[in-house]
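Students often ask what a holo structure prediction actually looks like on paper. The answer is less mysterious than it sounds. You provide the chain, you provide the ligand, and the output is a string of discrete structure tokens encoding the 3D arrangement of the protein together with zinc ion.
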Amino acid sequence: MWWPLVSLRPQKNECFSVKMRVAGSVIIAFLSLVVALAITALIGESATVDSWVAISLGVVALSVVLVATVAWAWNVRAREENVGDAYEEHNMKNDTVLNWNGVLEIAAKGNPEPVRTVVKSDEEWFEQLGAEAYHVTRKQGTERPHSSEMCRLFEPGRYACVCCDELLFDADEKFDSGTGWPSFTQPADDRAVAYHLDESHGMQRVETVCNVCKAHLGHVFPDGPAPSGLRYCINALALKKIAS
Ligand SMILES: [Zn+2]
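The corresponding structure tokens follow.
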């Protein structure tokens, strides 16, 4: 009679097991009632006081078993849900850390849709940015290393795209790489930065661009600190520091 207490579930369907246990308990209770009624009918008027007491105790005992089994089944379900929540939370935490394999996959398969799009003509960008920032962001230029104070800037705050003001990086993810360019371990948002395989200058690199206005930012390399292991090597001229 304990078969409904055995987990029958396929591993992927947790609710199924609970339903099976409850259904099994109800069936057992129903059959017990039928048996009790049948015994009562068989005994009929010849039933003694003692046999009535025995039948009543049996029905009470079965009811207790039923209630206990249902309560246990619901408890199991609650525990399974808790485990499921913890698992989801764990996955979400891991998902927030983009690693090198993730970068390569995005660069090969395509970038996520940007939250918005900014398109301007070359003349408009030049007028807005000036020669230096225009050359870096719109013509894939690279500023001289150690040419910006931003390399040594580690105060809290955020960094936006100099072209379109989209939030790109947080100072919390900034670190001193010693390379001469501002370096970050993660973008502020998964959709803020887009990745393109770059085989220029005889090298295989991954270019980073602003996903909103397609400004060239720099490159990302797999030699950054944990947990991502990424180093976003970004031109200071492509960024503007904004208040936190
Ligand atoms: Zn931008």
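The beta strands are 158-161, 167-170, 174-175, 183-184, 193-198, 205-210, 216-221, 231-234, 239-242.
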